[in-house]
Amino acid sequence: MATIKRFEDLEIWQLARDLAKDIFEEYSRSEPFQKDYKLWNQLNDSSGSIMDNIAEGFERNGRNEFINFLSYSKGSSGEVKSQLYRATDRKYFTQTIFDRLYNKTNVLGNKIGSFIVYLNHSEFRGTKFKDRTRD
What we know:
This protein is mainly alpha-helical. The protein has a single domain (16-121), classed as 23S rRNA-intervening sequence (de novo design (two linked rop proteins)). Helix content is 75%, strand content 0%. It contains five helices and no strands. α1 (11-29) packs antiparallel against α3, α3 packs antiparallel against α4 (63-89) and α4 runs antiparallel to α5. The mean pLDDT is 90.
């Protein structure tokens, strides 16, 4: 794998950003959903949390911390899927919209999981402690 210097270059971050945008667009099209502020806020926060935790973990410059934050991102993808069910049960989304958003979330969660497996087996340790000296 080539060295990635910016979190914005990670495919999983790009997919997470796209998912967050899609969820917001669907919310803004559904007038009844706009009145259920609590559920909307939870769905918006959890979809944003996926991309934010990928970015934060990457910026920590340590493999183990990155893996930890990726696990938070994967957990947030499960939260999004659950909230999509609630939104659909309340008739805020059609089955077609639910299927599209759920599938995007599911693919993203699987890719995050695969990336965690890759990092767990990688020799790369990160740069966090690279230049520290011992006293």
